[in-house]
Amino acid sequence: MTDTTAVFEQPREAGFGDYVALLKPRVMSLVVFTALAGLVVAPVSVHPMIAFTSILFIAIGGGASGSLNMWWDADIDQVMRRTQNRPVPSGRVTKDEALAVGLALSGIAVLMLGLAANWVAAGLLAFTIFFYAVVYTMWLKRSTPQNIVIGGAAGAFPPMIGWAVATGGVSLESVLMFALIFMWTPPHFWALALFMKEDYSNAGVPMLTVTHGRKSTRVHILVYTLLLAPLALGIAATSIGGPVYLAASLVLNAAFIRGALRIWKRDEDVAEADAYAVEKSFFKLSLVYLFLHFVALMAQKGLAAYGLGGW
């Protein structure tokens, strides 16, 4: 059996870009965008400088979570093709460095967000980091096929944090934005798991595709998509919704349900390349789905500021 620990013991010298990669910038961009959306659609205006610094420290907190995740998951990241080139498994950054960066940035982000905005937002950020690093990464990910269902809460908190920056609290609207991401996460990641099944199997991660098979995973994707649609549409009836958001949500949910139905009805005997194309197409659609929902919320708020687009 090959000894994989040597990679971590003798890392190559890391560059600035390696430490940036340690923070998972693509995931961080989603954190920043949804937190900004939560801040923008809140009923309380925020000084631009406070808004900027708050989003900056929310981003740093998201990056800290990514660093802690890479520290803990270094062993399985090295096995999975999708993650082999990350800074820790590739040997460019040591595990100890990843842990130190994650802890330091966590403390800085939470403290500075509390000082820049308020301690409710800071507390939510601290809980988000803890949930992603400890509850999801250290516990759920390797112990249950429901890992991404429960763990999806970590990625759903940013709009609540943004809302709390503006309002100093939590409301129905911020909870619904949380719920939108929470319910979107399983079909999004299960689609990824469908065309990356061997990665999770090789790494020993009990993703639904590994424990229950592809057919069951496709059924789960359809069920969660059908549950997601009324939730997403229901936001239109709240103070942050409106006809512009409703129109966008109707189109997006129709497309998302259609994509889930295509996956659900797919013949198991279809050529692997065709299956891969369907699953990857749905995964990409899921990214557009979430992005445009939050764009629609911000557009609705922008139009409302000019007395347009309301009910």
Automatic annotation (TrEMBL):
It is a multi-pass membrane protein. Keywords: Cell membrane, Heme biosynthesis, Membrane, Transferase, Transmembrane, Transmembrane helix. One of its GO terms (biological process) is heme O biosynthetic process. PROSITE patterns: UBIA. CDD domains: PT_UbiA_Cox10 (cd13957). Pathway: Porphyrin-containing compound metabolism; heme O biosynthesis; heme O from protoheme: step 1/1. Its EC number is 2.5.1.141. The keyword Endoplasmic reticulum does not apply. GO terms for molecular function: protoheme IX farnesyltransferase activity. The chain crosses the membrane at residues 27-44, 50-72, 93-113, 119-140, 147-169, 175-196, 217-237, 243-261, 282-299. It is an enzyme of class 2 (transferase). GO terms for cellular component: plasma membrane. Carbon 2 of the heme B porphyrin ring is defined according to the Fischer nomenclature. This is Protoheme IX farnesyltransferase. It comes from Actibacterium lipolyticum.
